[in-house]
Specification:
The chain is an alpha/beta fold. It has helices spanning 5-17, 27-38, 49-64, 70-84, 88-99, 103-118, 130-137, 143-153, 160-165, 200-207, 210-216, 221-238, 247-253, 284-288, 292-299, 303-317, 343-350, 354-362, 377-387, 394-407, 417-424, 437-457, 461-478, and strands spanning 126-129, 154-156, 188-191, 194-197, 243-246, 264-268, 271-278, 327-334, 372-376.
Length: 480
Amino acid sequence: MEHMPWVVMFLLKLSLLEKSGSIEMNRDSFIRVANRVYRLSDKLVGIFPEVLMLMMRAMLVQQLWYQIPVTESWRHMILQRVLLERSSDFNNELFFRKVGISLDDYYKIANYLITVSGKQDPNSVVRWGMAGFYSNLSPAISDEVLVNFLKLVAIPFQDLPAYLRQYAVPDCNSAELYQETPLKNKPIILENDGLVIFNAGLCVSSLRSIAMDVLKSCPEFYGRFGVDVENYVEERLRGTPLEVYSMSDLNKIIPIKKGKIADYVVVDQEEVFVFESKAITPSVLVRCSYDPVMLERYLKDSFIKGIEQGQETAHKLKKVDKFKSKRTRIVVVTLEDFYIYGGEYISHYVKNDFEEALIEKYGCLPVQLQDVIYMTLKDLLTLTEWLKDKPAGAMANLFNEVEEASKQPGGGRFSISPHISEKIGAEVVGVVGVGDALERTKAEMEQLLLSNSEIRRGQHPMSFMIEFEQFRSRLRHSFK
């Protein structure tokens, strides 16, 4: 079971939603019940091959959540912070309004907890005294901020059943088997005078996403954030030797003005790459659903729309002499991987009439669906960094190599990310595309711990105990 935490988390959810039973369960009984949960997927019979592929994707998404390396979470959080700092005051106001702490304070505490959790085995339980948590972070971080942070990411054990009720699935939908655990939103349990991180790996993965989840709940967030990500993508593309056209550049040369076009077009010798930025992360339902009808509904206004905008742009480029004879590819850039490779996958498994609809609209396919790819922003950073000292034709050659590798037996992937890692990852070392954010984060952590340590060394133990008791009292009252 230690290698299948998703089964344990699902079992924990079910047990907390049911009536109270025995306080203790012996190991053999637990293993029997856990195996019954594990075999539930065997009951899903009569699955069509297309749906089976979507089911495998949902299983993959669920399991990979627990396998994110600590260094990967660090890089993800640093990039996330860099993007949010592009509209720092705006995003801080939204975040503070929701949870009562600033984004800077959230990242300071989250980075500290990731450091603590990341030193442990991913599937281990970490028990941590509240006094240690408090003395390391206070007084540089105020009691109010610490309390509000714990209200955001932690929950008293006795409140778990009430919290999980909102995630109950009354109709026994089988997609619940592959749903991310609701405990990812509350990866820390408050128990007596301590913190219990019940799965170190889950805690690390959760802390990297909670701030963004809070901001996503603000209706006004995406308008500003989308523009910030588009501008960031442009900066990365223009940092390469390639010829880059923005939307305003394209509007000057494209004769057809009706309809929306993609964000950027990049020319690499005889190939054209249409880049469309989608500053969104896949929702819980996008991750776990394997019903094609439902999945199309969740994807159509964002991920599928990105392909449609790319096809519209390619159609218009065919009317321009400079572009009409060149091969065109579409790259839809997303914030996170949602394990759908591209247009061909969408057409085969999600939206069966997709290709026919495009042909009906344009008279032909402006871009073959095999040339439509989803790429995470992280992989775009790797790609653009790699391209900085590469000759013309390097990007076109890379994509041709990836295409050939995908056709080989066993070469298919759920996303382009493994190909990027295998082909060029070793040539791009360290954290790229974040300026001095990594150094600032390290300096913040060192200063935080050093300043608190110096204060505590010169403090009388009784003075600390009085402060700590006031904090504990404030924390207890905050959860009433």
